[in-house]
Design goal:
The strands form 5 sheets. The chain has a 6-stranded mixed β-sheet with strand order 6-7-8-3-9-10, sandwiched between helices. Strands 13-12-11-14-21 form a 5-stranded antiparallel β-sheet. It has 2 domains: 231 residues, P-loop containing nucleotide triphosphate hydrolases (Rossmann fold, 3-Layer(aba) Sandwich), CATH 3.40.50.300; 111 residues, Nucleic acid-binding proteins (OB fold (Dihydrolipoamide Acetyltransferase, E2P)). It is of the alpha+beta class.
Length: 360
């Protein structure tokens, strides 16, 4: 396995379009990196540049101790798993997994041993003599992963591998990939637009927008301490609530149906006291009094509810914005009724409305 270092990497196309604008990312040997962002943010372009499928306009990509900018893909010691599986339809599962080994002229006995080990790891040993047309989507994805694992590369690259699967299978395969990483201790770069995949799989996450890494860190760091409004709204499901209001020296004023309530804050930046700020609060930090451990209680009119089983999402209005609140199923949240909600402002983050950056 190997570490990965990306230094001031830029991608500019001949028409002048700048897709990547100075990317800096470092991950250690054995870490799982997630590149996450919406369509067109540059995450797949960056993955292709790591793979050698796209040339680097400026900057440096290093895999282990080697600068690979000008190195062809076959010499980079990588394996790539695609969204489309890319299996050979006329070959059996065994032949698909062993294909790369044959190209490298690995002895037949060693090929058989590697295929057997990989198939057992992925629990597809009973499928070795089948062809791709006889497999389910999840089984095909396992075969594609098996072909990559058989090569034992320094770096695994995954390009939205679960996008074509249904919801249940996607959850199952997510767990399989995480277990696989724990077993192999492999270095992985994984591209996705799904922030739940990002949160559950990654050791490190790079949140991207418009060719720029908006924030790089652990999943918990990014969830608890988002650097800006984009990251705060993109990471988390349901997403963070945002409230506009004037910051006071002792906290933030919550206005619900003309009734004002002070939310005491642990830190009120003196530079913004008396000015408008945006307060961010996760849905789980606005909850019913049964579930709450601490916070400021406010009677709120419930507009709509979404039962999810383990909890109920309740929607209300404060400071001119709709809020999503996570409540206990038996808390009695019902549309048109008033429910006492507890706001845990100790978990709040503040943003500057002009720059959209978090206030520290």
């Amino acid at each position: 396995m190997a570490s990965l270092s990306i230094r001031q990497v830029r991608k500019v196309y001949p028409n002048g379009a700048e897709v990547l604008k100075g990317i800096d990312i470092d991950i250690a040997d054995g870490e799982f990196l997630i590149l996450v962002g919406g369509s067109g943010c540059g995450k797949s372009t960056l993955l292709n540049m790591i793979a050698g499928l796209e040339p680097v306009s400026q900057g440096e990509i290093r895999i282990g101790e080697r600068v690979v900018n000008d190195m062809p893909p076959k010499d980079r010691d990588i394996a790539m798993v695609f969204q489309s599986y890319a299996l050979y339809p006329t070959m059996t599962v065994r032949e698909n997994i062993a294909f790369g080994l044959g190209i490298r002229k690995v002895p037949k006995a060693e090929q058989d041993a590697i295929v057997a080990r990989v198939a057992e790891t992925l629990q597809i040993d009973h499928l070795l003599e089948r062809k791709p047309a006889m497999l389910s989507g999840g089984q095909r994805q396992r075969v594609a992963m098996g072909r990559a694992i058989a090569r034992n590369p320094a770096l695994f690259l995954f390009d939205e591998p679960l996008s074509n699967l249904d919801t249940k299978l996607r959850v199952e395969m997510r767990a399989e990939i995480k277990l696989l990483h724990q077993r192999l201790k492999s270095t992985i770069v994984y591209v996705t637009h799904d922030q739940i995949e990002a949160m559950t799989l990654g050791d490190k996450i790079a949140v991207m927008k418009d060719g720029v890494v908006q924030q790089f860190g652990t999943p918990q760091q990014i969830y608890d301490e988002p650097d800006n409004l984009f990251v705060a709204g993109f990471i988390g499901s349901p997403s963070m609530n945002f409230l506009r209001g004037t910051l006071r020296a002792d906290g933030f004023v919550l206005d619900h149906a003309g009734i004002q309530t002070l939310l005491p804050l642990a830190h009120c930046p003196s530079s913004h006291v008396g000015r408008e700020v945006i307060l961010g609060l996760r849905p789980e930090h606005i909850t019913d009094t049964i579930s709450a451990h601490s916070g400021t209680e406010v009677d709120c009119l419930i507009e709509m509810t979404e039962p999810t089983g383990p909890d109920t999402l309740a929607f209300t209005q404060c400071n001119g914005s709709r809020l999503t609140c996570r409540t206990h199923p038996r808390a009695g949240a019902a549309p048109g009724q008033t429910l006492r909600l507890c706001f845990d402002a100790a978990k709040a983050v503040l943003f500057d409305p002009a720059t959209e950056q978090r206030l520290r």
